[in-house]
Specification:
The protein is an alpha/beta fold. It contains five helices and seven strands. The radius of gyration is 28 Å and the shape is elongated.
Length: about 160
């Protein structure tokens, strides 16, 4: 059997009907970065692939959702196009952010905060090295005055209890 005959035979086999998932995951991916994209639909409860759509965007997703009623929750990235598609096709549908994009967004935000305050941490480290410990207070914690941060600023030593 030749290659073309085998492909024709495989394409002639009808696919089983898939049940429309209650919770649908939507994301896009590049077939050729910058040129061709596709949208993958996943049953978020079982992890099974439901469909792969040519293209990406609101029209593609809204068309699929209208043709396959029964989806109650859509788990998606932050794409405004997907949000609009779900609003148009499922006015009563619930939209939630997917776990990967939530963690990715959190990590980006934390990285930016740490970078923005890196000078603060560096000055605190230098202050702690320059200063001498003050005597034990009645609370038992040891702290050091920081000359760079102004009077009234005390930095606790490593190992001391914060009270």
């Amino acid at each position: 059997m030749g290659r073309d005959t085998a492909v024709r035979a495989l394409l002639g086999i009808p696919l089983p009907d898939r049940v429309v998932p209650r919770v649908l995951g939507i994301d896009d991916f590049a077939l050729r970065r910058g040129h061709d994209y596709a949208t993958v639909l996943i049953d978020a409860e079982t992890g099974a692939r439901v469909d792969v759509l040519a293209g990406r965007g609101a029209g593609v997703v809204a068309g699929w959702l209208r043709a396959h009623p029964g989806v109650e929750v859509v788990c998606r990235d932050g794409s405004a196009a997907y949000a609009q598609a779900v609003r148009n096709a499922l006015p009563n549908g619930i939209q939630v952010a997917d776990r990967w994009h939530l963690w990715h967004g959190l990590c980006d935000a934390v990285g930016k905060e740490v970078a923005a305050h890196s000078a603060c941490w560096a000055s605190v480290t230098l202050c702690a090295k320059e200063s001498s410990p003050r005597p034990h207070s009645s609370g038992g914690s040891r702290s050091t005055p920081c000359s760079r941060l102004g009077s009234g600023c005390w930095i606790a030593h490593a190992g001391s209890a914060w009270r």
